[in-house]
Amino acid sequence: MTLALCALSHSPLFGINDPGPETLDGVTAALDAMRTFVRDFDPAITIVFGPDHYNGVFYDMMPAFCIGSGASSVGDWGTEPGPLPVDRAAARRLTRAVLDAGIDVAQSERLHVDHGITQPLEFLFGKGSTRPVIPVFVNAVGLPLGPVQRVRLLGEAIGREVGSWGQRVLVIASGGLSHDPPVPRLEGAAPEVVARLIDGRNPSPEARAERQRRVIQAGKAHAQGDGSFQQINPEFDALVLDTLASGRLADADGWTNDWIQRSGGHSGHEVRAWLAAFGALSARGRYRVTNRWYWPVKEWMTGFGMMTAVEES
Prior knowledge:
By secondary structure, this protein is an alpha/beta fold. Helix content is 38%, strand content 19%.
């Protein structure tokens, strides 16, 4: 077995807003099982697909996809700031292979990543891990977005390449599922918000704290029934999980961006990271899901899902 997969939701409100003991105990147990899965697989390298939330990638240059051949965490929401242990040579090799496959992907020697990529890494490997990684940014909030099919093809191109390396490679998907948190959108935004979305790097501690305060309050209001934000949609989440588990990934080609937004919220587009990761696994042939968990967590404003999968031997 050379490829294995962990897919999991992230939430900045994890560990801040309390979803109650039943949910928290269930998520904690699932994370323990995931860590055991990763430890038993013992990957030589990890590829993590994830979005950004206008903390590292902005409209001054908004790629659809970007492979980090060097990367640094911005350290938001309690994640560890500083450089990631990126395998530069492998990342550059991966970029060339994806481009050769006809998928337009950017490369960054200084990719700034936020909790969308660092939180799952810290969940699974702990803070300060030195195990080599390759971060792959998948745009999910910077509208407009391309067709979902391109995400699947990106994943498949990556899977074909890493499958030839003769190493154990773990692919991680980070994001979703259905959720509609207070992430700003460029169209119709106030001038000061537009300026931040174009280049909002290195905010002051006060500005970051105020932004986080608003998200925390939104999560609490959402849990108390505030209808200002789109509700979690377990039916959408189940369809996404079922499609990925079935191996019929081409079925997702028909998911329009409008449908994802209507059904899964503005940040429901983060399911793109899951599709890319499963696309990578599918490039090795048939696979099977070994674990699947799901909770609609209003306190975290997300349908919180987790899956592990391996290629069929």
